[in-house]
Specification:
Length: about 300
Amino acid sequence: MAEALERQPPITSPVDDHVEPGSSLWRDAWLRLRKNRMAIVGLYILIFLTTVSVIGPWLSPYTYQGQNLDLGASPPSAAHWLGTDTLGRDLLTRIFYGGRVSLAVGICATLVSLTIGVLYGTISGYVGGKTDMVMMRIVDILWSLPFIIFVILLMVLFGRNFLLLFVAIGAVEWLTMARIIRGQVLSLKNQEFIEAAIALGLRKQRIIAKHVIPNVLGPIIVYTTLTIPMVMLLEAFLSFLGLGVQPPMSSWGSLIKNGAQSMEEYPWLLVFPGLVLAATLFALNFLGDGLRDALDVRSSKD
């Protein structure tokens, strides 16, 4: 009997052993983003501009405040690829240094804005009730204020500090993020996994940190890429008014301001910084639109 059992062929399952590999939301989003040519072009432009802004000043033979008064404002040449300003300073080198300042302001002020907006919107949407109503009415009141004038007042009252520029701009750009996150949280708070976490007795702080915020990372990432250009434009506007980065430091906004003052005689002082700033803003907007489409759950079902 035992020998007969040993001679029988092994029993195989009729189900195919081949299992399709799983795919995550982030991998699917990356595959969809790669198909968006404008978003990828924008990503490459951002990588290029960030790289040259970081390493460009080290490779340049000039400094951002090195003057050559005998040379004065000269058009582009072999020695100065983008020309020089009215004080004989190399414009390409100053654009490199200005890129560091503009990108730093854009990123740091956006982080301040996201920190305030995400926490405020998450708490408002998750707690709900009267707390949500009061918090949103505060947002409505702040939204009605002229924020550019508010930033100007901050800069005038507390001084034209470079670090204060991050806080001042970030402190007035969080309202839209708070509204977006609140709407996302309102749609998540009644989901089964949130109710399961409540049934397990988890504290609200843990639910918000471990379950709510990770599930709204998509909108956060998308709006981050759209907030950075708005912050950079606001910094350029403040620098144009003389309330932003102070000499001898330079940003793309301050370079545009200086170029606008002498655009009729020396047009290259306005054209090149303006082109660099415009390219950065377009790249960020194209990347933001691409990320919005890539992270849209509805598009993943198509």
